[in-house]
Amino acid sequence: MAVREVAEGLVERCRQGDFMGAIERYYGDDIVSIEPVSTPEAPAEMRGIDAIRKKNEWFGENHEIHTVDVAGPYVGDGGFAVEYTMDVTNKPTGQRVKMTEVAVYKVSDDDKIVEERFYYNAPGQ
Description:
Layout: H1 3-15, H2 19-26, E1 27-34, E2 45-47, H3 49-62, E3 63-76, E4 79-90, E5 96-107, E6 113-119
Parallel strand pairs: 1-6
Antiparallel strand pairs: 1-2, 3-4, 4-5, 5-6
Helix pairs in contact: 1-2
Protein backbone atom coordinates (compact mmCIF):
# COMPACT_ATOMS: atom_id res chain seq x y z
CA MET A 1 0.00 0.00 0.00
CA ALA A 2 1.23 3.50 -0.78
CA VAL A 3 0.82 6.72 1.19
CA ARG A 4 -2.00 7.73 -1.18
CA GLU A 5 -3.93 4.54 -0.39
CA VAL A 6 -3.55 5.08 3.36
CA ALA A 7 -4.65 8.71 2.94
CA GLU A 8 -7.67 7.89 0.79
CA GLY A 9 -8.71 5.04 3.09
CA LEU A 10 -8.52 7.20 6.20
CA VAL A 11 -10.45 10.02 4.52
CA GLU A 12 -13.19 7.67 3.31
CA ARG A 13 -13.72 6.24 6.81
CA CYS A 14 -13.74 9.71 8.35
CA ARG A 15 -16.32 10.91 5.80
CA GLN A 16 -18.50 8.03 6.95
CA GLY A 17 -17.99 9.05 10.60
CA ASP A 18 -16.00 5.86 11.28
CA PHE A 19 -13.14 7.50 13.17
CA MET A 20 -12.45 4.47 15.35
CA GLY A 21 -12.39 2.22 12.28
CA ALA A 22 -9.81 4.54 10.71
CA ILE A 23 -7.67 4.31 13.84
CA GLU A 24 -7.88 0.53 13.96
CA ARG A 25 -7.05 0.11 10.28
CA TYR A 26 -4.43 2.75 9.62
CA TYR A 27 -2.69 3.74 12.88
CA GLY A 28 0.52 2.15 14.11
CA ASP A 29 0.80 0.86 17.66
CA ASP A 30 3.37 3.53 18.59
CA ILE A 31 1.53 6.50 17.07
CA VAL A 32 2.20 9.98 18.43
CA SER A 33 -0.65 12.50 18.49
CA ILE A 34 0.14 16.19 18.92
CA GLU A 35 -2.43 18.91 19.62
CA PRO A 36 -1.62 22.65 19.80
CA VAL A 37 -2.56 22.85 23.48
CA SER A 38 -3.11 20.64 26.50
CA THR A 39 -6.58 20.36 28.00
CA PRO A 40 -7.79 19.03 31.33
CA GLU A 41 -8.85 15.88 29.46
CA ALA A 42 -5.64 15.30 27.53
CA PRO A 43 -2.03 16.45 27.28
CA ALA A 44 -0.91 18.10 24.04
CA GLU A 45 1.20 15.05 23.18
CA MET A 46 -0.09 11.52 23.52
CA ARG A 47 1.72 8.30 22.64
CA GLY A 48 0.48 4.85 21.73
CA ILE A 49 -2.63 3.45 20.09
CA ASP A 50 -4.43 2.94 23.41
CA ALA A 51 -4.07 6.62 24.34
CA ILE A 52 -5.38 7.66 20.92
CA ARG A 53 -8.36 5.31 21.23
CA LYS A 54 -9.20 6.78 24.63
CA LYS A 55 -8.90 10.35 23.32
CA ASN A 56 -11.31 9.59 20.50
CA GLU A 57 -13.71 7.70 22.77
CA TRP A 58 -13.76 10.69 25.14
CA PHE A 59 -14.54 13.04 22.23
CA GLY A 60 -17.41 10.83 21.04
CA GLU A 61 -18.84 10.47 24.54
CA ASN A 62 -18.71 14.22 25.19
CA HIS A 63 -19.84 15.60 21.83
CA GLU A 64 -22.86 15.16 19.61
CA ILE A 65 -21.52 15.31 16.05
CA HIS A 66 -24.03 16.95 13.70
CA THR A 67 -21.88 17.09 10.56
CA VAL A 68 -18.33 16.33 9.48
CA ASP A 69 -16.85 17.70 6.27
CA VAL A 70 -13.53 16.22 5.20
CA ALA A 71 -11.35 17.94 2.59
CA GLY A 72 -8.42 16.13 1.06
CA PRO A 73 -6.32 14.17 1.31
CA TYR A 74 -3.42 16.34 0.23
CA VAL A 75 -0.64 13.82 -0.31
CA GLY A 76 3.09 14.50 -0.09
CA ASP A 77 6.26 12.52 0.34
CA GLY A 78 5.81 10.29 3.39
CA GLY A 79 2.57 11.79 4.57
CA PHE A 80 -0.59 13.72 3.90
CA ALA A 81 -2.88 16.42 5.26
CA VAL A 82 -6.64 16.53 5.79
CA GLU A 83 -8.94 19.42 6.71
CA TYR A 84 -11.85 18.61 9.02
CA THR A 85 -14.82 20.90 9.64
CA MET A 86 -17.17 19.66 12.32
CA ASP A 87 -20.43 20.97 13.71
CA VAL A 88 -20.66 19.58 17.25
CA THR A 89 -22.49 20.12 20.50
CA ASN A 90 -20.56 19.69 23.72
CA LYS A 91 -22.87 17.40 25.73
CA PRO A 92 -21.88 18.60 29.23
CA THR A 93 -22.34 22.32 28.41
CA GLY A 94 -24.86 22.21 25.55
CA GLN A 95 -22.65 24.62 23.58
CA ARG A 96 -22.78 24.08 19.83
CA VAL A 97 -19.69 25.04 17.83
CA LYS A 98 -18.35 24.72 14.33
CA MET A 99 -14.66 23.88 14.38
CA THR A 100 -12.10 23.51 11.63
CA GLU A 101 -8.73 21.85 11.97
CA VAL A 102 -5.98 20.60 9.73
CA ALA A 103 -4.35 17.28 10.53
CA VAL A 104 -0.95 16.34 9.13
CA TYR A 105 -0.16 12.63 9.12
CA LYS A 106 3.20 10.86 8.75
CA VAL A 107 3.13 7.37 7.27
CA SER A 108 5.81 4.75 7.98
CA ASP A 109 7.40 2.41 5.45
CA ASP A 110 5.00 -0.33 6.63
CA ASP A 111 2.01 1.85 5.65
CA LYS A 112 0.89 2.80 9.16
CA ILE A 113 0.24 6.31 10.43
CA VAL A 114 2.93 6.99 13.02
CA GLU A 115 2.19 10.65 13.77
CA GLU A 116 -0.83 12.92 13.62
CA ARG A 117 -0.41 16.62 14.28
CA PHE A 118 -3.38 18.98 14.52
CA TYR A 119 -3.53 22.69 13.74
CA TYR A 120 -6.42 24.95 14.71
CA ASN A 121 -7.15 28.23 16.43
CA ALA A 122 -7.38 27.37 20.11
CA PRO A 123 -8.33 29.82 22.87
CA GLY A 124 -5.25 31.39 24.45
CA GLN A 125 -2.90 30.55 21.60
